[in-house]
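[audit] Reproducing an earlier prediction to check determinism. Same input, same settings, fresh worker. If the tokens differ from the archived copy the diff job will pick it up downstream; this log only records the rerun itself.
[audit] input (406 residues):
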Amino acid sequence: MNKVKKVVLAYSGGLDTSVILKWLQDTYRCEVVTFTADIGQGEELAPARAKAKKLGVKKIFIDDLREEFARDFVFPMFRANAIYEGEYLLGTSIARPLIAKRQIEIARRVGADAVAHGATGKGNDQVRFELGYYALEPDIRVIAPWREWDLTSRERLLAYARRHGIPVETQRKGGAPYSMDANLLHISYEGRTLEDPAREPEEVMWRWTVAPEKAPNRPERVEIEYRRGDVIAVNGVKMTPATVIAGLNRLGARHGVGRLDLVENRYVGMKSRGCYETPGGTIMLKAHRAIESITLDREVAHLKDELMPRYAALIYNGYWWSPERRMLQEVIDASQRNVNGWVRVKLYKGNVMVVGRGSRRDSLFDPAIATFEEDRGAYNQQDAEGFIRLNALRMRIAASLARRRR
């Protein structure tokens, strides 16, 4: 353990990572460099700096990564319409490769020979962080305290903090009710009462969204503009990727959009119940599929849908930096060249409803062909007879054979 000279710790300033900071100093007798990522979690980050200084840290990095997160991670994922197990919009999963990337960059900059994280040995995040580390710096030393120490409960963590004079935020009686993770895209809740999958989440748990039944009684229409598969404007106002997500979060939250209660299959093998709020992402997914519906060729759209579950699983399981995810991204991005236009959605009582879509240059929807009225020869309906007979040929042959066998 004493062979480590300098370690970069992914540091939030909370109880776990503050204890980890001190534990690294005492156990490895090494210099600890802290890295705190601002990815839109909405928390004041100055206390993390102050606490790191109090614990003797000389090099403290607090980086605003919101635009990079939205532009280079969230937006590429939404081009794929990625959802895990049919529902989860991958809000936690997609943040981990960026944190790992920046942590490795800092390790190179300060000459660190190790990195550390605060993920437990039961969850997905340990896999996501470490696959990222090794993909970007194959010989880096990884320290995962939860797999090494004997501080296996919150009580032990608190006792360690008190023993070493580590500041701990005052908690209400019984401690924080949920384990939460927030970023620009979503907020998640796990643990405590949610560990019983039959128990309905308490209304007080939800932090971003209004309850759908308490949402406004009048719907709100939102127009979203797309260029090459990415949102570039909302209600006519040009926005950066990060401000797009933040703006759609506010609109969706006001109407109770984006709540999810899910039992998911973790990569490490267990089932886990989590609740999520992803208001802006829920709007983006619905709208993106709508603009693709008029701008993508049928077979391209269907192929994308076939590839999507594999792509989503790669993100969920931590393989963002893998060659197969990069390859799939190139295919997905190529499909988005003509995904340009606008979508109008209606938000009402937890729902997102598409009520219009259009593309001035790239729409494949031809009213002259699709019309139920006189099409003036644009489509010869008699052509369908041969098309149907050819597609029925194998079934006719099988039916004839079955009849002969009787």
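[audit] rerun output stored. Observation attached for the diff report: Residues 373-405 form one domain.
[audit] end
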